[in-house]
């Protein structure tokens, strides 16, 4: 089973996506801040981390760097409600596989997760 | 005692006058000496006076009969035709009228011990001739100077006013541009903020709706299931619409450095037309491009420029109901000045709407327009350093001038 973590400071969104992904056969963890996310990644092997770039306690790109130290093989998908070109470019440079702008359709997200794992 | 007679013809039929002198002598008694004198001597005398004045000079007797020939008043022994001036013992000047009712100046003097009155007549015109000539010259000079002064004043002031007006217009134009640019920039910031704030709740709506849909799939059949599915579908459609708007808003607000690459305008417009041709074909609209110089190559960001022209052409096509034509004419003037004119035979943009066409959410296509097309176009054009002149009245015509800053 593919293991995914979703980090978004918008709690409702962070909890809803996992529920839907669960229904589609993914094993999903979620957190609304960097501390919880780090704890999860420390204790579990995750395939894909889906991170909002604008988190309340940390920049998503920084969190991405931290999580990569914990799990070098971890893959990343970035998403945001307010996308700027520079952020997207910076994210891809730091090794994110994809950059998505909200709202994201579930089918699109699943496609991206599968693509990320297969590359 | 001396007596002088009037001029008279006498027996010899020659005009003459007599002077008689009576002397009382104790030895010889009364002696009377009488001399007849040809009146020509008087004429000679008068002529010498006349030579020095521009006037009629003559002698008359107390009855107004001419005693010498007068140029304008007749021969001697005829009436002079003017009332005899009243007696006076000194020289007098009076103003009166001649036979032709013209105003004249008459100077006269009763000559002592004779029946003669010396008269000198001058018309007012003659007397005033020099003065009038001078006055006329002065008048001409005055009128000429006044004309010159008025011309200089009128021309100078209208020129000055024109320059002032032009300056005012230029200042207003610059102020307008500054205002417009800053307005667009703040709208851009606002747009980005709105997009951000809306995207998160929109995602929650989307995910919740998705979850309901997911749950419904696995739920047992119940009577309202189909109805709920329909509602979910409708919610998704609205979410799509909102997200399209927020994405476009972000596109408007995005600030990125445009690339610079050589673009062959003929190839470029062929590609742009290819993009929109399908849409135009459905409405039976012909798109033509024309240029006097097919080899124009400019340096700009191709993909951004494509967005600009796809937007403009789409707008042109949308302004036509069916069966029309859109024409793109472009020309090269200088390295930094290229003109592109897009005309269509559609509805055009009413003049009162022109100032707003670049504002986000301003649309005349109420049912299907987002009002973002031209605002995004404007944002791109600002980035490319292109001057955008729009002139549209009855037919739509957009004029683009590429002025690189």
What do you see in this structure?
By secondary structure, chain A is of the alpha/beta class. Chain A is built from 5 helices and 5 strands; from the N terminus they run E-H-E-H-E-H-E-H-E-H. Chain A has helices spanning 11-23, 34-43, 60-70, 85-93, 106-118; strands at 3-7, 27-31, 48-52, 75-80, 98-101. In chain A, strands 2-1-3-4-5 form a 5-stranded parallel beta sheet, with helices on both faces. In chain A, helix 4 links the parallel strand 4 and strand 5. In chain A, helix 2 runs parallel beside helix 3 (60-70). With 405 residues, chain B is an alpha+beta fold. Helices cover 45% and strands 23% of the residues of chain B. In chain B, the strands form 4 sheets. Chain B has a 5-stranded mixed beta sheet, with helices on one face. A 4-stranded antiparallel beta sheet of chain B has the order 4-7-6-5. In chain B, strands 1-2-3 form a 3-stranded antiparallel beta sheet. In chain B, a hairpin with a 6-residue loop joins strand 6 and strand 7. In chain B, helix 2 (124-218) crosses helix 3 and helix 5 (302-318) runs antiparallel to helix 6 (373-384). The longest helix of chain B has 95 residues, at 124-218. The mean pLDDT of chain B is 82. The chains are: A alpha/beta (119), B alpha+beta (405). The A-B interface holds A 10, 12-13, 16-17, 19-20, 23, 81-86, 101-106 and B 192, 195-200, 202-208, 210-211, 214, 218, 239, 243, 247, 250, 254, 256.
Q: Key features?
A:
heterodimer; A: 119 residues; alpha/beta; five-stranded parallel β-sheet; 5 helices; 21% strand; globular; B: 405 residues; alpha+beta; five-stranded mixed β-sheet; four-stranded antiparallel β-sheet; 6 helices; 14 strands; rod-shaped
List the helices and strands and how they pair.
The complex is a heterodimer of chains A (119) and B (405).
Chain A: E1 3-7, H1 11-23, E2 27-31, H2 34-43, E3 48-52, H3 60-70, E4 75-80, H4 85-93, E5 98-101, H5 106-118
Parallel strand pairs in A: 1-2, 1-3, 3-4, 4-5
Helix pairs in contact in A: 2-3
Chain B: E1 2-4, E2 16-25, E3 29-38, H1 40-52, E4 56-60, E5 92-97, E6 103-110, E7 117-123, H2 124-218, H3 225-253, E8 261-264, H4 265-282, E9 285-290, E10 297-300, H5 302-318, E11 324-334, E12 337-344, H6 373-384, E13 387-390, E14 396-403
Parallel strand pairs in B: 9-11
Antiparallel strand pairs in B: 1-2, 2-3, 4-7, 5-6, 6-7, 8-10, 11-12, 12-14, 13-14
Helix pairs in contact in B: 2-3, 3-6, 4-5, 5-6
